[in-house]
Amino acid sequence: MTSSVWEGAVAGAVAGGATRVLAAPLDLLKIRFQVHAAPSTPHDLGTRLVRAVTHIYGEEGVRTFWRGNVAATGLWVSYAAIQFACYQSLQNAIVRHDHTLSWVWYSGSGAIAGVVATVATYPLDLCRTVLASQGVPKVFPNMRSFASHMYATQGPRGFFQGLSPTVLQIAPYMGLSFGIYSTLADLSTTHPVLHAVGNGAIAGFVSKLIVYPLDTIKKRMQMQGIPRPAAYGAAIPRDRGPVQGHGA
């Protein structure tokens, strides 16, 4: 059975917006740990996470956990809408040509849809990363100030800074995610709603874990050339002591 492209777009937009609002605090922490590298070991990761939450809340307030959320919500609503619309279009085209939907088709469609949505919404992704990564004092108080700076200093191309590693990350990520999900769905015969949630969680976790190093590279490249205040490192509290290599 095929679904309309409109249904896919609406479902994706609603899911993307709801997920964005709920996951914003965790996403902000992830971005700051990726951008503000500090020496750490697996043993002190939990301690650093607690310290980071306490520091951000004490220094910047609870609203900070949703900083850049306008850009992020716009990103995820538009990204999910474009992605699922494109994915549904590809699935419908495959069925029309009498091809049997398989893991390969699901993965390929997911990868293509992910790349299309990423390129279309990338300026919002860049804006979200910059706004969320700021500590105090802030260089860019809002989206408008950041957009004005980028256009004045780098021109339109500046809004696509770091796009290459992003595409290299999103293609395998979405391909794996949709491929794993479809495979698990084929194995699920009872409790479809529960299986859909579980399958989505497993597919997202496994695929994200595989491509996570590329996501960190992407975030670092997005921040290249972006002005930072002297107190920029305060965005994430660092342990005292000699600085060591970041490692894996």
UniProtKB/TrEMBL annotation:
PANTHER family in alphabetical order: SOLUTE CARRIER FAMILY 25
A Pfam cross-reference name: Mito_carr
Annotated GO biological process: transmembrane transport
Record keywords: Membrane, Repeat, Transmembrane, Transport
SUPFAM superfamilies in alphabetical order: Mitochondrial carrier (SSF103506)
InterPro entries assigned to the protein according to its UniProt record, in alphabetical order: MCP, MCP_dom_sf, MCP_transmembrane
Main location: membrane
GO CC terms: membrane
Solcar repeats: 3-93, 101-187, 191-248
Keyword Protein transport on entry: no
Species, as recorded: Saprolegnia diclina (strain VS20)
Subcellular location: Membrane
Protein name per its UniProtKB record: Uncharacterized protein
Topology term for the membrane: Multi-pass membrane protein
Family label: Belongs to the mitochondrial carrier (TC 2.A.29) family.
The keyword Transferase belongs to this UniProt entry's keyword annotation: no
